[in-house]
Amino acid sequence: MENIFRYYEFSDFLKDNSGTFQENEISFSELNKEHFLIFEKKELQYNLYVSKYSSKKDIGKEPPEILELLVENYDKSIPEHRIVLRKYLY
Known about the structure:
Elements: H1 2-7, E1 14-15, E2 25-30, E3 35-42, E4 45-52, E5 66-71, H2 79-89
Antiparallel strand pairs: 1-2, 2-3, 3-4, 4-5
C-alpha cells in the first residue's frame, strides 16, 4: 500500500478528529480544491472514500460536506479496486 500512497501523492496519515472516521487515521489526495480521495486506515484494512470539504485544511478536523464509500477493505491485488482509484485520479 505504501507504493500506492506515494504514487498517487496521498498525504501522510493523520488522526481524524472530526468524528467522521471514528478517530482512525486518514490520508488524502486532492482531486480539486473541494474534492478529495481519502483512505481510512482501520486496523489492518483500508477503506477508500470520495469526499467534499470546503477547504483542504478542514480534513480530519471538520465533517465532510459529502462522503461516499468507494471501496471497503481496499486490496491493490484486485483489479476492480485499482480501477476505482484510477477512475478518480485520471
